[in-house]
Amino acid sequence: MKTIGKYGFTTAVVAAVCFGALTPSPTAAQPYPARTVSIVVPFGAGSITDGMARILADKLGPMWKQTVIVENKPGLPGTASVARSAPDGHTLMLTSNGHTIAAVINKSVNFDPVKDFAGVTVIASVPLVAIIPTDLPAKTLKEFIALAVASPGKLNFSSAGLASTSYLSAEIFRQQAKINIVHIPYKGVPDATAAVMRGDAQLYFAPIPNARELSATGKVRAIAINSDKRTPQLPDVPTIAEAGVPDYKYESWFGLMAPAGTPRDIRVKVSRDVAAVLQMEDVKDRLTKFGSVPAPNTPDQFDEIIRNDTQRYGKVLRDAGVAAQ
User: Fold this and answer.
1) Does 221 lie in the same domain as 232?
2) How far is the C-alpha of 94 from the C-alpha of 120, rounded, in Å?
3) Is 236 exposed, middle or buried (0-12, 13-18, 19+ CB in 10 A)?
């Protein structure tokens, strides 16, 4: 079976969906969508997640001949509202893999990230780039690790918050490189980036566009990317595995989910239609501006990713001593 993309979208599945090989559920005879579809984004307007949702809404609306709206409902209440929505495919959620650790870091979570949701499809993976201040006496990832080993507890790394992909990326790196560096969480990407620019933090995992722009100023140095291959946007920046931590594995994803109980045939249809949208050249161009790589897959494959990531990243946080607050 030929596989396309990091998250396992297969040509066999495409053929099955397109030619009706998948057995329809009793709901298949019902028109979908029958009314306005809402894509809930548990982040504020202007975020990468919000931007991706608006790209999908722009394309899926005409395709479905229905209105598709984006609703920004930041934080846990937004996610919980989706879990409580009718499982009929008319309420979807576009979120990141920070969803999988919500229950580990928040005592107030009133939903289960696995049991209360059904996967639809991954939209894209978003590699992050390790950046350090140029005045740090290290020019490569190996040299940064050596510096951290020589000065345990003296170097800091910033993140956009405990639930952020920048934190998970750096924490997995810290654990696998076996170094003692101190986490300083900030309230978003701008503050976390500014910390490195000021020298308050010596490491930050930044989105590709940010890393490229900041590197051009000469104030920071891009030393590694956390994907399994280099990016054309920063071709001289090695992967973390190439740069000295061969077992490193982490890459953030953004994906579309539905409330648990949403019929599989509806999820398959949405997954298929999203995959078609992600093949459009203008969509590819817009996603590239976010530093993201289209990575559609099937509902079953996405469900497996959600389960596995919830277990894996929960362990990462527990090993880091993170307690729910």
Assistant:
1) yes
2) 10
3) exposed
Beta bridge partners of 182: 156
Residues 258, 282, single domain; the answer is: yes
Task: Give the total number of structural domains in the chain.
Answer: 2
Q: 225 has which bridge partners?
A: 129, 239
Query: Is position 325 within any domain?
Result: no
Neighbours of 9 (CB within 10 A): 21
Question: CA 228, 233, 237: angle at the middle one, nearest 5?
Answer: 55
Rounded to the nearest 10 degrees, the angle between the axes of helix 189-198 and helix 208-217 is 30
Distance from C-alpha of 208 to C-alpha of 293, rounded to nearest angstrom? 11
Place of tokens 């495919």: 89
- Which of 227, 243, 259 is a domain's end point? 243
Handedness of CA 234, 219, 172, 161 (dihedral sign): negative
Could you list the residue range(s) of the whole structural domain that residue 181 is in?
A: 128-243
Beta bridge partners of 121: 256
Torsion of CA 52, 54, 59, 63, to 10 degrees: 110
What's the CATH number where 163 sits? 3.40.190.10
Q: Which residues pair with 207 in a beta bridge?
A: 128
pLDDT in tens, 96-152: 988 998 888 888 888 999 999 999 999 999 999 999 999 999 999 999 999 999 999
Alpha carbon separation from 67 to 33, 74, 86, 90, 108 (Å, rounded): 9, 22, 18, 11, 33
Distance CA 202, CA 323 (A): 24
What confidence tens digit (pLDDT) does each residue in 54-98 have?
999 999 999 999 999 999 999 889 999 999 999 999 999 999 988
